[in-house]
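User: Here's a protein and a ligand (NAP). What would the complex look like?
Assistant: Let me lay out the input and then the predicted complex.
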Amino acid sequence: MAPSTPSPEAAPEAVNPLAEGLESDRRAPPCALVVYGASGDLTHRKLAPALEALAADRRLSPNFAVVGVGRTPLSDEEFRARMLEAVSKPSAAWEALVGGFRYVAGGYTDGPTFERLREVLDEVDAAVGTDGNRVHYLATPPDVFAGVAGALGEHGLNEPGRQGCFVRLVVEKPYGRDLASALALDDAIHESFREEQVYRIDHYLGKETVQNVLALRFANAIFEPIWNRRYVDHVQITVAESLGVGHRGGFYETAGALRDIVQNHVLQVLALTVMEPPATVDAKGIRDEKVKALRAVDIPTHDEVTIDVVRGQYEAGWVEGEEVGGYRQEKGVGPDSRTETYVAMRVDVDNWRWAGVPFYLRTGKRLPKRVTEVSMEFRDVPHLPFGSKETRGLGPNALVLRIQPDEGIALRFGAKVPGQAFRVRSVAMDFAYGAAFLEETPDAYERLLLDAMVGDPTLFIRADEVEQAWKVVAPVQEVWTDDATPLARYRAGSWGPREADRLLERDGRRWRSP
Ligand SMILES: NC(=O)c1ccc[n+]([C@@H]2O[C@H](COP(=O)([O-])OP(=O)(O)OC[C@H]3O[C@@H](n4cnc5c(N)ncnc54)[C@H](OP(=O)(O)O)[C@@H]3O)[C@@H](O)[C@H]2O)c1
């Protein structure tokens, strides 16, 4: 059934999630969260704990229920037991809610599954008071997404049953494997759901410190004036992981770092870093500016890919004091795999603000530590009135936004070394998020689940954003289909292959050591 009736989704969002003062008011309305793939890892490790935290924090309505859907045959009791077990110390609020949870066993496109689901949702409305509001959450592997969305449309579960209710669809990542498959998924989903109903997850955006990039830039007078090509020499964005692929080798073989991290997390962080100030800090304002920013990212030609993009794969080495095997020795990975576990690339942002400023992006597994940061290096002073001996320890000014872990901001500048001689060296002024605020940082899934229930799409990815992000990486994917393209190897526990160092050295720059 194609979407037709106007619903509250069509109305522009009035919420201003980043505005101060609304925090305590953010509570979910009555609703049923229908989780497809509810027997899986995401539900167990992320969704259940996040929902429990929301319940303990009184952010969920007492009229809330989860309806799990999956092929695994489970009774309601077994499903409830799993939802309790997924949380180490369940609060009384969670225990009370779980008693109303239901489970529907069946195939993801089978008619009887959705007929039964409709009955169960009606029963939940009557028993728990979920009021006809539904958030459908696709937590299955991605090849099932389109089928579930289609089945929901076919069975009329895509539209509110009456005026004033809402029906939304949350879609997990990855959203497509490339531009063509992302567009095909959009077409399939849009047959049943209007874009305003669709909430595409990139859990990076749920992280407090990613949102803090917006606060830092747009709530302060001192940074924005220098946030441009006149003052910034270049920008480095690093998303480093110390872990390997663990037991997910089979999955990773079909993904790789470009799809898994660059197309979504790295480009999202880039968009927040380069976007223009939005006129209003609401969903439309922010998402419009992010799309504009992504559209300004220069899409490389095939020739540029060969010189501006490095793909790497880890070999055996030592990480955090532990000896680890190479990627090709991981379970589920072929001995001659060419899947990249590392990507470094230079991109340019062709607009008035950033023309000529290189952005160096890198991500990798089995790097020395887990860290995500944006480092903005500033141009040198026009004239340094000290000799080279006095300034031996002086580096360029830099502003580093640490997104994880040890969330914070560091400003590097030159200071005189105490003593008789006049020597200047770089020092860092460090702001640690954890030390400045007593409030606990909610987990990304807590934030995003609540947003989906409240109806705030700001931190979800709109169709045009996903499309543009795929366009940026498409030429890289095209070039890499050729087996002759080099695959640089790097030792586990190093900061990546030599080729990545050369990418910057050729421009007279170096990677920062986070
Ligand atoms: N796990 C995470 O930490 C994480 C993080 C970020 C994003 N995600 C995304 O979240 C989604 C779910 O991830 P997950 O780790 O929970 O996956 P999962 O455990 O592999 O799968 C979830 C459930 O989907 C069903 N399923 C598995 N393979 C299927 C197949 N080939 N066809 C149909 N159904 C299948 C299974 O339930 P039944 O057999 O009962 O049907 C399974 O319990 C994925 O899109 C993933 O990319 C996961």
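Summary: The pocket of NAP is lined by residues 37, 39-42, 45-46, 70-72, 108, 139-142, 144, 172-174 (CB under 6 Å).
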